[in-house]
Amino acid sequence: xxxxxxxxxxMASFPYRDRDRMLHILTPDHGLISASARGACSVKSKLRPLxxxxxxxxxxxxxxxxxxxxxDGEVIEAFLGISESLEHLAAASHAAEVFRxxxxxxxxxxxYFNLWAxxxxxxxxxxxxVLISRLSTLRLLAEAGYAPHIDSCSVCQRPVSDxxxxxxxxxxxxxxxxxxxxxxxxxxxxxAGTLALLKHTLTAPFSRLFRFSVVxxxxxxxxxxxxxYLHEKMEKEYTKLxxxxxxxxxxxxxxxxxxx
Length: 260
Ligand SMILES: [Zn+2]
Prior knowledge:
By secondary structure, this protein is of the alpha+beta class. The protein has 2 domains: 2-77, CATH 2.40.50.140; 81-147 and 190-255, de novo design (two linked rop proteins), CATH 1.20.1440.120. It has 7 helices and 8 strands, in the order E-E-E-E-E-H-H-H-E-E-H-E-H-H-H. It has helices spanning 86-103, 110-125, 129-143, 178-181, 192-203, 216-234, 242-245, and strands at 2-16, 20-27, 31-37, 56-64, 67-77, 164-167, 172-174, 187-190. The strands form 2 sheets. A 5-stranded mixed beta barrel has the order 1-2-3-5-4. Strand 2 (20-27) and strand 3 (31-37) form a beta hairpin. The radius of gyration is 20 Å and the shape is elongated. It starts with a strand and ends in a 15-residue tail after the last helix. The model has no long low-confidence stretch (mean pLDDT 92). Zinc ion (ZN) binds next to loops.
């Protein structure tokens, strides 16, 4: 049995067995781990606050037979405000699902942990939490090696100014030249403002990633692109943000922070 101390973010928290909770915790050095918090559903359990969705905690784990168990710890930040607004909760849940999917089978990398730290903090504070969530997933994809090609035409490599079509087939923008246009059946037009926002998202240091201002038209255009790009790269339909369109149709049980 090995003792391991690490800070970590709760990315998912499920009731497990009788009064336990199974947690997915994103750590800087061990990546995304599954850890059992025994008895954490009990009101009296000292582990209960360490098992709340989105919380950042200092954990003491013991590691036995290739499994992590939460033994003790302290909450650093609970981000309680996130669950007080459906928009913030949906935004955080969407980004957390993408981070879980991408880090589940990736080698541990502290960049993912740091990006999530900036993301969850910004979602908790922002008036545009859903846009923050979507942009964060683009940066995550880029950090994992799946950045879109938006610096120049992805067919002829010539510079593109102003607006441009984004081709999902070439995973990049294409210029208006006739020889490049023919590949653009599956494309989406990106405005100059959207391209500027995407370039910022792909290149800014994490500390300045969410320091931008946008008009509603850019948010709308960028959001359409970001959802399609995420779906294309992850080959998966993400539905947490649908909660905002159809709040009565979605099963909320997965988003509950506590056991009862
Ligand atoms: Zn071209």
